[in-house]
């Protein structure tokens, strides 16, 4: 019955530290959770449904291949990366290519760089 309160207090303090940094990182643990920098939403003509065989090229702050999924009549591609300027080029067979530049803001929270995900929309036009 004469247990020390120290271990319980230590667990409580650790819980506060871990929760004080929100969903992005764990304070003191040195672990930062990667986030989406850009959400790319691609559509074609209203009656055509989702555009098939889309290619998204990313350059600038992030040089990655985005993950794309069809959601209803749109294709949504998510780009991982840090803050900075991104150049996005979207192409698909039978459609005119399109390009956009977007700047993704970031901040430092608990030692982690946190990005503000930007949304970029493309409405592709048939050739």
Q: What is the topology?
A:
Elements: H1 6-19, E1 25-26, E2 31-32, E3 36-43, E4 55-60, E5 67-71, E6 74-80, E7 84-91, E8 98-104, E9 106-109, E10 112-115, E11 118-123
Parallel strand pairs: 3-11
Antiparallel strand pairs: 1-2, 3-6, 4-7, 5-6, 7-8, 9-10
Structure, described:
The protein has 127 residues and is mainly β. The chain has two domains: 1-33, no CATH class; 34-123, Immunoglobulin-like (Sandwich), CATH 2.60.40. The chain contains one helix and eleven strands, in the order H-E-E-E-E-E-E-E-E-E-E-E. It has a four-stranded mixed β-sheet with strand order 5-6-3-11, with no helix packed on it. Strands 4-7-8 form a three-stranded antiparallel β-sheet, with no helix packed on it. It is elongated, with a radius of gyration of 21 Å. It starts with 5 loop residues before the first helix and ends with a strand.
The major pleated sheet works out as:
4 strands, mixed
- The CATH first-level class of the largest domain comes to Mainly Beta
Domains (count)? 2
Mind telling me which CATH architecture of the largest domain this is? Sandwich
The average pLDDT score comes to 81
Global geometry:
elongated
Span between N and C termini? 80 Å
List keywords for this structure.
127 residues, 4-stranded mixed sheet, elongated
Please summarize what this structure is:
This protein has one helix spanning 6-19, and strands at residues 25-26, 31-32, 36-43, 55-60, 67-71, 74-80, 84-91, 98-104, 106-109, 112-115, 118-123.
């Amino acid at each position: 019955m004469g247990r020390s309160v120290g271990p319980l207090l230590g667990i409580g303090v650790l819980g506060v530290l871990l929760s004080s940094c929100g969903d992005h990182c764990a304070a003191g643990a040195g672990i930062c959770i990667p986030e989406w920098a850009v959400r790319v939403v691609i559509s074609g003509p209203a009656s055509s449904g989702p555009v098939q065989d889309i290619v998204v090229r990313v350059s600038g702050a992030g040089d990655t291949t985005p993950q794309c999924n069809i959601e209803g009549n749109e294709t949504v591609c998510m780009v991982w990366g840090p803050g900075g300027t991104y150049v996005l080029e979207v192409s698909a067979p039978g459609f005119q290519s399109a390009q956009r530049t977007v700047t993704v803001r970031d901040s430092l929270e608990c030692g982690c760089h946190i990005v503000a995900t930007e949304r970029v929309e493309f409405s592709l036009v048939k050739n």
